[in-house]
Amino acid sequence: MARPFLRPFQPLEWAAAFLFFWLLREWLLPLNALTDTGDLGEFLVLIAGVLLLDLLVQWRWFTAIIKLLGIFTLLYYNYFVTPFWELAWLKAVAARLSHDLPFLFQMHWTEMSLISRNLLFYILLAALVSLLAFLVLGHKQGLWFVFLEEAYLATLDTFMPYDADGSIMRTLVLGFMLIAVLHLQSMGKLAASSKSKSFRFWGALLAPLLIIAITVGLAYAGPKKAPSWPDPVAYFTKQQADNTVYMSKVGYDNNDEQLGGPFIQDNTPVFTAISNERTYWRGDSKDMYTGKGWQKAVSDREAILKPNEYTWTDQLFENMETKEVHATLDFHGEAKYSTIFYPGQLTKLDHYTPQHATILYDRISQSLDIRNGTEMYRIRSRELREQQRQQQVEKPSAVRLKLNNYRLTAEVPILSEKNMLEAGTDYPASIKQHYLQLPATLPPRVKQLAQQITQKAKTPYEKVQAVSTYLRNSGKYRYETKDVPIPEEGQDFVDQFLFESYRGYCDHFSTSMAVMLRTIGIPARWVKGFAPGTSVQTEGDGTEIIEVQNRDAHSWVEVYFPNYGWIPFEATATFSSPIRINHDLQNEQQQQNLPVPQLNDQDRDSVSNGRLEELEAMTDTAASGQSHSWPFIAIPLVAAIAGVILLWIKRRHLLVWWLRRQLSEYQEEQFTQKYQVLLKMLERIFYTRHEGETLREYVNRLSVSGEKRQDLWYLTQMYERVQYGTKQMEGKARAIANKILEQLSQQLKP
Amino acid sequence: MAMVKVDHSREVIENLIDNIEKVLIGKRHVIEMSIVALLARGHILLEDVPGVGKTMLVRSLARSIGGEFKRIQFTPDLLPTDVTGVSIFNQRSLEFEFRPGPIFAHVILADEINRTSPKTQSALLEAMEEHSVTIDGTTYPLNQPFFVMATQNPLEYEGTFPLPEAQLDRFLLQLQLGYPTPEQELTMLTRLSGQHPIESLEPIVSVEELIQLQQTAALIQVSEGIKEYVIRLCQRTRQHSNVYLGVSPRGTFALYRAAQALALVRGRDYVIPDDVKELTPFIFKHRIILKPEARLDGMTTERLVEGLLADTRVPMN
């Protein structure tokens, strides 16, 4: 039998779909934070479109065609400029697909073009949304979906640098609303005969809203106990280390939004370098201090499509004497980064694999982000489009790539103290704008301390040296990796280190130095990368084989000097300066090349440094080193699963209990309604009544015996008298019937 | 007030059934259905093999209501006047005088109705519908109550004139007696060994009382939901894809009246869906004609009606 083309309009169904859409949005939001996905708009449009189609049209094959058309239109809008109707773009898509499909089956997904990947993702998303809509909205079963979504968000929150607190709350509210609406829909079908329909309807809608509002409100406002068992990520990490104190591992990573907390040493090798100079490996720099950590506020990215043909000039140190460094880096093991690490300043990069790598170079932070080849982009800007209508731009891919090895040529500066002292304070406006930034919440005593330290110093260089010396050599601050507290809510990271804890590692020292310099008007920024590493072997021509491990991850400070650019400085006790200094001030004749900091193996443990990987996850209990065992996780988990299973097994009991409660809500006179509830109870306990089955036939079929059967017969005959015979029940008869009904409802059990 | 009347009626009907059961053993349901037809002022078509007690049923019924009983054996040479009666010229009074036929009785057994010519068949069936007979321009009303039990023999097809659909529609119920069980047959043998019990059967109700019962049956309460249920059932036979001819509006009314009568037989002054469901097979069976292709597929009217009843929503009010 043919179904009508359009689905009849049902407000509740639309309401459910609306809520469902927002739930699906919560699903996609993490993509924004965790991957390179820029704009979620198109995906949301896709989801909304699919839901809308499924709501409006019943013919499935028809919606499938429209969905596919929509997907292709979306693809066209994103990648093509030729007129839509010429269909040349379709050929291009087909060509891309046929080129990329083999990669799909070879599982070389990153080799696939953006168009193919997008197309496949669109189709997958549309199919998934249709399926979910069918399962959740069609079958009116929302609980499992909300539960899974919460689990998904909780997992992301725990194992990924994603803050899902808001999402979890929103999902909870939206999810409960969805369940309420779905339930109302199915109830509406059951209670089609109910007379006071509209009253029930609004009541049924308002009640869950109120309950959700109260519950969430209470949960939000109420005092919360600290987590009673440790963060699982840190817990699992512990399993690998011998140390009973579980902590995060040290390593290089891109997120510095929150600093502090303890970590453990990790000897995983990162790369082996063959170089004629042992010096710091610079990775990235950040300009904005938030009070908790560092972020990038500005960036100016340049696309380098063929890095081996590109030459960098004077990005860091201008007009300075430099030494040329040749180095080959070979990354082995799992730890590879999509960042180029280089000594001093980079001039040339070649001999790298994979060879299709492209680079996004940030001219402001001087960081090099490695990307997976190129992609064609359609120019979105209006002016550009008018000028070059037909043009698409080739840009580095949005997908990050990790290089296995590369050779580079770089320059390390030889600092002339004399020049530095004469550099003056004539900072360019853009430098002053970005690199003197401080959060408003920074306590004034930081500035007071900086002024106090530098009161004798006249020039910026002297001030920088004074601050560095104060942090490194005053003896007040201890290098410590394990017993390091995390700043409390609202507490400034630098302030805590300088005035309260007096202990920390490179992040504490370098951040404090940069911030203190900024308070006294010296532009400074925070740099991270790797410390020089350990020399494994020295060749005759002065080249060394150097091994760099995760524990060598390090951070330091760069200070801006007019005419000379960004000069690196070391802030951490037990580390030596990252650059060669020509002490030409004291002795102009003495042109000695200071040896690169020799880090002997003895104090490697205390010297090596690193950064925290997972910070927000750490708790105070964790920091104090309390150890936890499996049962803390297992018992509640098992209890929860057992609870769910029990509820499932006892679901009929629960339903009957609920119906029994409903019975008591009716008045004496409402015998027929009460009988209908009794009927529902019987259907839950025994079997459902067929549509064409009369009450007598149904009661006969039930396996009830003895008195209960007689009572049931009596009640059924009463009901027939009232309903079919349209007779009023006399007071006495009603009282008896009600009493019997009550008794029976108590006796009936699944 | 109504309750008292129903209680009394029920008592009378129970006695009537018990009385007939003395003769016809183990056929309570058929007896009940016959009384339903009697109370609903309808007629019954019995389709069964010979010798299962068709005549006994009718005779005992006639005796129990104290009415006159006549039997018409339909043969191919039976004339309409043999049924209705004939006007004869009285030479003494020089006037035409009407000699009433066997139809002028209270209970009539029309045996093997499909063996006579359509002309004679229609004479009986018209009388059944109109409750009167017109001969030579004069209309003679039939007795009240007037109850016809017609039988047709399903095995003998040779030399028969099958009743047309329009005629079948005039029977309220189509029943089957069926063979008795071995135990029932044993009881029968014991009972029949002496004097035949039908000879000692006493009338239970008078003709007047029966007419009153018929009037009570017509007053039985039928709720709107049940009326809709009756209509829905009949409508669905007309829309069914396997049906060539569905139940006529006369059939709808028949189901309605029969349900009222059955409610009275069961001692209720209101109809419940069970009454309708119980009667539907007997009322629909001879009123539905299946499409030939459906019949070839093995569909029967019984199965069709069963399916209809199973998936037609039972009213809850």
Automatic annotation (TrEMBL), chain A:
Annotated keywords: Hydrolase, Membrane, Protease, Transmembrane, Transmembrane helix
GO molecular function, one term: peptidase activity
Domain Transglutaminase-like span(s) in chain numbering: 498-573
One record GO biological process: proteolysis
Pfam families xref list: DUF4129, Transglut_core
Spans through the membrane: 12-28, 64-81, 119-137, 168-187, 199-221, 630-649
Name of the protein: Transglutaminase-like putative cysteine protease/branched-subunit amino acid transport protein
From TrEMBL, chain B:
Enzyme Commission number(s) of this protein: 3.6.3.-
Entry superkingdom: Bacteria
Residues covered by the ATPase AAA-3 domain: 43-173
Assigned keywords, A-Z: ATP-binding, Hydrolase, Nucleotide-binding
GO molecular function, one term: ATP binding
SUPFAM superfamilies, per database record: P-loop containing nucleoside triphosphate hydrolases (SSF52540)
Coiled-coil region(s): none
InterPro entries: ATPase_AAA-3 (IPR011703), CbbQ/NirQ/NorQ/GpvN (IPR050764), ChlI/MoxR_AAA_lid (IPR041628), P-loop_NTPase (IPR027417)
Homology family: Belongs to the MoxR family.
Name of this protein: MoxR-like ATPase
Protein species of origin: Brevibacillus fulvus
